[in-house]
């Protein structure tokens, strides 16, 4: 994994490397029974070089704890490995910008390489970007969240692919939701389905 991680540091597969501080590669045990895929690193992750260490990571930690999934059993990564942002005219806070389909496509070889090395049994897509990266552009979180699906055939993985994939909302949607409690309970219900699968 270290060699892969080092190689990703020099990735110029799309233009996002130009403004980001660094490539934020996945982190966690290898192999791992469970892999979570987010969208892209946020401001804090970009600075610290680790996935899910900011506010969305706080929600993820809490939901894993509440669902009884040990955090150290999970490998955490993102569909896109560089932070994409815009700078507002005033103020210095960098504002997250959704990656384009082309940027997600450019980053996909890193994701399939991680899947090959980590060999998870179960994959959880957090949010629409991760779900579309794995399950195709027609996938709708609103329609199919929390449903256990067979992992799709991906040529690079051959027969050694994960058993199941489940998509749910992104933890940052909980942070932004008008009714945070309801949004959190929805996320927890989906992650409890994952916990059942692991047992
Ligand atoms: N949001 C993500 O999708 N990934 C991170 O690593 C942090 C925030």
From TrEMBL:
Alphabetical list of CDD domains matching this protein: UDG-F4_TTUDGA_SPO1dp_like (cd10030)
Uracil-DNA glycosylase-like domain sequence ranges: 25-192
UniProt-listed SUPFAM superfamilies: Uracil-DNA glycosylase-like
Record's keyword terms, sorted: 4Fe-4S, DNA damage, DNA repair, Hydrolase, Iron, Iron-sulfur, Metal-binding, Nucleotidyltransferase, Transferase
InterPro entries (alphabetical): UDG_Type-4/5, Ura-DNA_glyco_family4, Uracil-DNA_glycosylase-like, Uracil-DNA_glycosylase-like_sf
Tagged with keyword Magnesium: no
GO MF terms held by the record: 4 iron, 4 sulfur cluster binding; deaminated base DNA N-glycosylase activity; metal ion binding; nucleotidyltransferase activity
Transmembrane segments: none
One GO BP: DNA repair
Source superkingdom: Bacteria
NCBIfam families, A to Z: UDG_fam4, UDG_fam_dom
Family from the record: Belongs to the uracil-DNA glycosylase (UDG) superfamily. Type 4 (UDGa) family.
Name used for this protein in its record: Type-4 uracil-DNA glycosylase
Source taxonomy: Bacteria, Bacillati, Actinomycetota, Actinomycetes, Pseudonocardiales
């Amino acid at each position: 994994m270290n060699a892969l991680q080092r190689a990703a540091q020099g990735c110029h597969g799309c233009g996002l490397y130009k403004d980001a501080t660094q490539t934020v590669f996945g982190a966690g045990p290898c192999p791992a029974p469970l892999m979570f895929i987010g969208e892209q690193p946020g401001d804090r992750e970009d600075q610290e070089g680790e996935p899910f260490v900011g506010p969305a990571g706080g929600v993820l930690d809490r939901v894993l704890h509440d669902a009884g999934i040990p955090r150290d059993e999970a490998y955490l990564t993102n569909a896109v490995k560089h932070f994409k942002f815009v700078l507002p005219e005033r103020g210095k806070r960098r504002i997250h910008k959704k990656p384009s389909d082309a940027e997600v496509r450019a980053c996909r070889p890193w994701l399939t390489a991680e899947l090959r090395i980590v060999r998870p049994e179960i994959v959880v897509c957090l949010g629409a970007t991760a779900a579309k990266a794995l399950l195709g552009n027609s996938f709708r979180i609103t329609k199919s969240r929390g449903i256990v699906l067979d992992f799709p055939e991906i040529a690079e993985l051959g027969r050694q692919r994960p058993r199941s994939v489940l998509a749910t909302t992104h933890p940052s949607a909980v942070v932004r939701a008008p009714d945070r409690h309801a949004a959190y309970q929805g996320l927890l219900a989906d992650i409890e389905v994952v916990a059942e699968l692991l047992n």
